[in-house]
């Protein structure tokens, strides 16, 4: 994919070389990795409720507006916006986030697992919404392996982006619901993908991932996902960043139906 390739090449250069040499004119400007650290810290504070929802909202907005500005300064971002829109419309922008699976792995028959109302990223006590699609494998003995293949199911990046934050230390008994999760920022869409309940995370904050690249293996981590009544699945959420820097959940069902299958 050309857009992602160009952006990715720029980013990788920016991350590997001292950031002041490539992407940054003002040496006081934070590196991309700094934003990853800020996001990781903030999300952890939200989870343990050591920050008020209002403060969290302000910090989140500041980080996301800074990230958008950083990527807007890349020349290719504007040049490719038309191509981006056509790629999104035809579906070829996205890769199906589970290797070797068809769209029938999406929960429900018409994606009705999505319930966006009442979602608040900044208040960990707010429950009841499910602004996400769940994608399932057949795993009757709940060992994280697909019963058909005896293999783990590879979770793939739906689009190219910057890995912002990860969790890898979830343990059974933990009340945290996402388990081992990954946040990826897509600078072309200016949005965030969240992949939850992984058994194993294969990427690190600051890393650029390409659409269709393996980022983790599906698992059963998370307070509810670990329970026997929960079939093994990937929880996939997308948050569109609005002009004020705040997130709005978007149903990915239409994108998933059109996404490129990866084998
Ligand atoms: Zn879910």
From TrEMBL:
<feature type="domain" description="M23ase beta-sheet core">
    <location>
        <begin position="152"/>
        <end position="237"/>
    </location>
</feature>
<dbReference type="GO" id="GO:0004222">
    <property type="term" value="F:metalloendopeptidase activity"/>
</dbReference>
<protein>
    <submittedName>
        <fullName>Peptidase family M23</fullName>
    </submittedName>
</protein>
<dbReference type="Pfam" id="PF01551">
    <property type="entry name" value="Peptidase_M23"/>
</dbReference>
<dbReference type="InterPro" id="IPR016047">
    <property type="entry name" value="M23ase_b-sheet_dom"/>
</dbReference>
<dbReference type="InterPro" id="IPR011055">
    <property type="entry name" value="Dup_hybrid_motif"/>
</dbReference>
<dbReference type="InterPro" id="IPR050570">
    <property type="entry name" value="Cell_wall_metabolism_enzyme"/>
</dbReference>
